[in-house]
Amino acid sequence: MSVSANHTKWEIFCRVVDNYGDIGVCWRLARALVAERGIDVRLWVDDWGTLSRLCPQAVHDGVRVAGVELRRWMNPFPVEEPADVVIEAFGCNLPKERERAMAAREKPPIWVNLEYLSAEDWVCGYHGLSSPHPESLLIKTFFFPGFVEGTGGLILEKGLLDRRDQLLKKQSRADWLRVFSKEPLREDTLLVSLFCYEPFGLAGLLRRWEKEERPVLLLVPEGRSSIGVETALETNLPVGGEIQRGALRVVALPFMDQDDFDELLWHCDLNLVRGEDSFVRAQWAARPFVWNIYPQKEDAHFVKLEAFLKLYCVDLREEVASAMAAFWRAWNGRGDTAEAWPAFAQVLSELENHASSWCVAQGAQSSLVTTLCQFVDTSLKKLDKIPPL
Ligand code: TRH
Asked: Residue 45 forms beta bridges with which residues?
């Protein structure tokens, strides 16, 4: 009988380049592999400080949290038996000692390079391509998450959408909000979450919201986003602090764990998110959202942004799609957010319906955990057929 992915040991290697996204994705993936498949997972992380912001239980090297063995990626790399499946996240380059140990195994480990998420057309053509190691029998396969058939899919934990619906049924947003703010919430308030880099149009948008008829309540977790608001409003905004400016009220939240961050997105009418992981979580929230894409040299990120807009807007009315695209572009520095806001605000209810159907359609596709396990199962079968050296 051949071994299935569920009975193998996996390890994920992650270098924290900047921000939380890379480790955010790996930590989430590791937990899902354990929870859904009972896989024994070890996660190697080079930046313990960033990991422990996301996972405060990461108190020492080797600790198990949510069933995942958390390990410090140190130099020189500890001598240990490599796992059966090795995931190199985002081209982080495995330690040479580890590559040598992998090559020395009787059966080479299944080696996957997990790439960044993109909606660009070329992704399907590159997903699943393999590259043999120049000096050993190791083969590295490139795995691309994505939104369409033929990619690796997205991380969607089993039961997440049901948990979201149940929570929203039993907890009103006013009750949820009481933990963060004692001010009563007007029924018609537009509740917005803000997780961003330094969008050029933030100050202009806040000024626009101050003059809105409909009250806007902006919830801002601590970090670059709250610093951006402090700069724009020329004030201090410590965690727990609140500011009222005209129709706009800002509440500063602490940095939460990933599950609490999900709940924030589920309760808001509009989520301003960034990077990769929060961008996907906003889609599982099934609410209108705006993506602050990670900026790249020579504006290369705009190609990625446009590719996603093209895919996401396929079934939208022309007027709705163009209002959404104009606001997204402005938020990323191409256009004026304050000018683009009224048309965008006008189509929010239509975008809410669209966000729900998009979420259902994406949720019906195979998740990243499923595609990875299928790939590992197929690779194990092939390995079984290779006679030992
Ligand atoms: O932190 P990011 O900007 O990460 C980015 C992207 O991943 C990008 O692709 C990468 O190249 C770049 O870093 C270097 O944004 P992202 O991807 O949304 O990750 C943030 C993580 O932080 C996500 O897992 C959600 C989590 N989070 C919390 O858990 N609690 C919080 O309070 C907040 C605000 C975020």
From this structure: 14, 72
